[in-house]
Structures are given as C-alpha cells and as structure tokens.
C-alpha cells in the first residue's frame, strides 16, 4: 500500500496570504524543484525573484509564477560570484522590495568516480553547492542585520551529507558543508530574528532533470519501489515543506534539516545486497582504460 498520495496540486495547509507582501528569492528557481517551491510561495501571496544564470530558466520560472497569478522577476546571477549576488539583491530590492525569504536551491551535480574527477569538476560543484549557498546567505544576512529585520533562509541539502555519496564525492562533500552551515548560521543569527533551516528532498522525478542525472543506471525504473513509501514524491510536496519552514507557524524551528523522502535514506536491509563498485555501476572499465 505504501504512504497515501498527497492532496492535489494547488492545495495548501497554510492560510491564504501567509506570504502576502513578502519577497522570496529562489536561486535556481526556474526549473525542477526550485520552480515547484517558488510556485508554492507564490500561491500564498509572495512576490518571487527567480535567480539563475540562464535566461531560458529565468523565463520559465517567471512564467510558472505568473500562471498562478503572482508577480515575479528573473534576475541573472552566477552565485559563485559574490559581486553578482550583491547586484542581484539590489535588483530584487528595487523591483520587488527587500527579500524576506531566501531559498538556496541552485546546485550542480553529475556522477563520476572520484579518481576520474578533474580539479575543475570538483571546484565547480563545490563552488556552486557550498560557496554559493554561503555567499547568498551572507548577503541576505548582512542586509537583515543592517536593517534589524527578521528573515528566513532555506538551504537545500542531500541525504548523502550524512552517509557519503559514492559517485558524487563533490556534491556529497558540498552538501555536508551546507548541513553544517545551516546549523552554524542558525545559532549565530537567531538572536537577530533570522532563521536558517534545510530541506533534503528524496526521489522527486521531474521534467527538468539534467541528462547527467537521467543517465544514472536504473534511473526512473521502478523508482517508487526503491522507497519504503512505495511511491516517489511530487514536487509540490517539497514546496509545501518549504513554505511551512519559512512560515510563522515554524517560528521556533531553526537549525533543523527536514528530510522529505518517505524514510528512504534510513532504509536498511537485514543482509546488504552484493557490493558493486561505483565504476561498474556507471558502466566504466578499470581506471585508465577509458
């Protein structure tokens, strides 16, 4: 049977207008789970800034927000560049108002054995996942500290921050840093009214998955059977979790990492399946042969 299906898209547990007159920045908010979270904030009255490097992604995010009757802008920014982040926040403030919520969703990832990983691949993923999350959080925090106003940050983590991630050493290390950063900033900034939490999504198939992730062997094959819930997540379910964590109803929750994955990351077998090295899982020959 598994876990029941959620309410339909468009439903909400929070009162209408929960985020009325608030501004929400979502990095990487033009595609996939970022877009789904942005839409749920928009349904609850927020004005949305879609921050992304790619114009087509920004346009897709803005269109999704406008389709539910909310206001949105797209802002170009490479979150690896602190100066661009500051400029992006200035644009948001001029056009929408000061940001009340920041969702650090932008990420980079692709499967590769650690021994095959180039220094540039390592730097790129860690730079986006960890450094970009810090730079955006710092910019948000500084502005709220200066203005003496409360705020909310939601970081996007990953279960392999706890367990390690064979084939994803760059992303797993970065996400482990994000988890620690979430807990550190929550303590530092709570006295000033700034809450910092994280969300860890499980299996949430969506049409915007990049080819590098789609190409992981067995991806999208019987995904529901890979979870104790016996189903995958719906992107708007992650949006509901994000809006709750940023809402007044979670005002005493900070420094927390909420896993939304149907208990999948906690799954264990009485006998583990036979071990298959990551090179074999990815269809690669011995190191150096390709």
Secondary-structure map:
Blueprint: E1 23-27, H1 32-43, E2 47-52, H2 55-66, E3 72-76, H3 82-95, E4 101-104, H4 119-147, E5 151-156, H5 160-163, H6 169-189, E6 194-201, H7 211-214, H8 235-246, E7 257-260, H9 278-281
Parallel strand pairs: 1-2, 1-4, 2-3, 4-5, 5-6, 6-7
In words, what does this structure look like?
The chain is of the alpha/beta class. It is 39% helix and 13% strand. It has helices spanning 32-43, 55-66, 82-95, 119-147, 160-163, 169-189, 211-214, 235-246, 278-281, and strands spanning 23-27, 47-52, 72-76, 101-104, 151-156, 194-201, 257-260. Strand 2, helix 2 (55-66) and strand 3 (72-76) form a beta-alpha-beta unit. The longest helix has 29 residues, at 119-147. 42% of the residues are buried. The model has no long low-confidence stretch (mean pLDDT 94).
Q: What does the radius of gyration come to?
A: 19 Å
Q: Largest sheet, described in full?
A: 7 strands, parallel
The CATH H-level superfamily is NAD(P)-binding Rossmann-like Domain
What is the spatial order of strands in the main beta sheet?
Answer: 3-2-1-4-5-6-7
CATH topology: Rossmann fold
Spatial shape: globular
Instruction: Please give the number of β-strands.
Output: 7
* Domain count: 1
Q: Fraction of residues in helices? A: 25-40%
- Mean pLDDT rating: 94
How far apart are the first and last residues' alpha carbons, in Å? 44 Å
Level-2 CATH architecture: 3-Layer(aba) Sandwich
What oligomeric state do these chains adopt? single chain
- Note the total helix count: 9
- Low-pLDDT stretches are none
Would you list the SSEs in sequence order as H and E? EHEHEHEHEHHEHHEH
């Amino acid at each position: 049977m598994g876990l029941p299906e959620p309410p339909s898209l468009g439903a909400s547990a929070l009162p209408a207008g929960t985020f009325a007159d608030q501004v929400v920045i979502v990095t990487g908010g033009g595609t996939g789970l970022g877009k789904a979270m942005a839409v749920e904030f928009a349904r609850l009255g927020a004005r949305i800034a879609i921050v992304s490097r790619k114009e087509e992604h920004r346009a897709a995010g803005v269109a999704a927000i406008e389709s539910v009757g909310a206001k949105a802008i797209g802002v170009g920014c490479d979150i690896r560049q602190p100066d661009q982040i500051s400029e992006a926040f200035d644009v948001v403030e001029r056009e929408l108002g000061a940001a009340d919520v920041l969702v650090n969703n932008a990420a980079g990832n692709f499967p590769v054995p650690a021994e095959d990983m180039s220094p540039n691949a390592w730097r790129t993923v860690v730079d986006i996942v960890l450094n970009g999350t810090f730079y955006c959080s710092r910019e948000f925090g500084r502005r709220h500290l200066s203005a003496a106003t409360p705020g909310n940050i939601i970081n996007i983590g990953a279960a392999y921050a706890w367990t390690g991630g064979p084939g994803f050493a760059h992303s797993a290390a970065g996400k482990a840093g994000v988890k620690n950063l979430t807990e550190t900033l929550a303590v530092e900034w709570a006295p000033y009214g700034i809450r910092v939490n994280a969300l860890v999504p499980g299996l949430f198939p969506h049409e915007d998955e990049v080819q590098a992730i789609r190409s992981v062997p067995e991806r999208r094959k019987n995904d529901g059977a890979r979870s104790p819930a016996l189903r995958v997540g719906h992107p708007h379910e992650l949006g509901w979790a994000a809006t709750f964590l940023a809402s007044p109803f979670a005002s005493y929750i900070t420094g927390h990492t909420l896993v939304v994955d149907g208990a999948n990351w906690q799954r264990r077998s009485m006998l583990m399946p036979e071990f298959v090295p990551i090179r074999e899982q990815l269809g690669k020959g011995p190191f150096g042969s390709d």
